[in-house]
Amino acid sequence: MASHKITVFVVDINGVSTLQKIWNGKPGVHVIVKPGDDVRWANDNGNTGNLTVTFPPGQWPFAQPQKPLTAAPGHQTDANLKVKKPWTDPKLRFDYTIDVGGVTNDPDIIIDLNPIIIKKKKAAATKKKAAPPKKKK
Known about the structure:
By secondary structure, the protein is mainly beta. Helices cover about 10% and strands about 40% of the residues. Strands 3-2-1-5-8 form a 5-stranded mixed beta sheet, with no helix packed on it. It has a 4-stranded antiparallel beta sheet with strand order 7-6-10-11, with no helix packed on it. A 3-stranded mixed beta sheet has the order 4-12-9, with no helix packed on it.
């Protein structure tokens, strides 16, 4: 399974503080994960502002019990969180709030089941059919 690192920092754009996120090395708004993937957040905001990641009740897609997620500047959240597997929840989109030193953003974690389905179909399609038994002469 994949490991996802969401790096968070604040930038000043025309005098307005804006929260930015880099997910697996690329800028992005939402994080797309698969069941069984690991997720962690990193506070890359220099020496100012602690990182807090908050999920509302019922918005927790991880196997571990829901808990507060925090990181001091230059640090990461305590541990990788593992996305539930097998995935049995009908919900595929989870809202959460990121706060770094009072600057907030409300992205989503999106659960992507398609690659799992495609792999199963592909595996089924590549299975060889058993040859029919030979007739005795």
